[in-house]
Amino acid sequence: MRAAGASAALLLGVVLGGCSEDAADRAVDDAADRASELAGQASEEVGRQLEDAELPKVDWSRYGDQLRTRLDQLAEQADCQGLREELTKVEKNDTRLTRYIKRQIAQVC
Questions:
Q1: DSSP string for 25-51
Q2: Distance CA 109, CA 104 (A)
Q3: What is the mean pLDDT of residues 38-63?
Q4: Is the sign of the CA dihedral 19, 22, 23, 27 positive or negative?
Q5: Residue 93 DSSP class
Q6: What is the pTM of this model?
Q7: CB 57 within 8 A of CB 96
Q8: CA dist., res. 50 & res. 32, Å (int)
Q9: Nearest to 89 by CA among 101, 74, 75
Q10: 95 with 87: CB under 8 angstroms?
Q11: Long-range contacts of 93-101 (CB under 8 A, 24+ apart)
């Protein structure tokens, strides 16, 4: 048993001692690149989930299609200020319309 442990320690010492500084630098760079790649993938996934988040159903006959068109255009343009202004106009009532606008703000702002 002791011989096996000593052999493993010797092998580990040779491997670690044999690593050049360049190899260590490459390993660090590779790990940083992989971490950056994983962060990018996570960000893309969160973006997809937000895009897939369903907007509340709104009875547009109560508000008019022009309002829906305006809200959707503001969202497409990522006009957060415009969306917040629209929300302020209707926020006194927590309706599906306010939830619709809040969801758009959450998606683009």
A1: HHHHHHHHHHHHHHHHHHHHHHHHHHH
A2: 8
A3: 70
A4: positive
A5: S
A6: 0.47
A7: yes
A8: 27
A9: 101
A10: no
A11: 96/56, 96/57, 96/58, 96/59, 97/58, 97/63, 99/56, 100/55, 100/56, 100/58, 100/71, 101/71
Q: Which of 90, 38, 40 is nearest to 64 (CA)?
A: 90
Both tokens of 98, joined, read 């306010």
83: how many CB neighbours lie within 10 A of its CB? 22
State yes or no: pLDDT of 86 exceeds 50.
yes
pLDDT for 7 beyond 70 = no
Confidence band of 10 (pLDDT split at 50, 70, 90): very low
Q: What single-letter amino acid sits at 47?
A: G
Q: Which residue is listed with tokens 């096996």?
A: 4
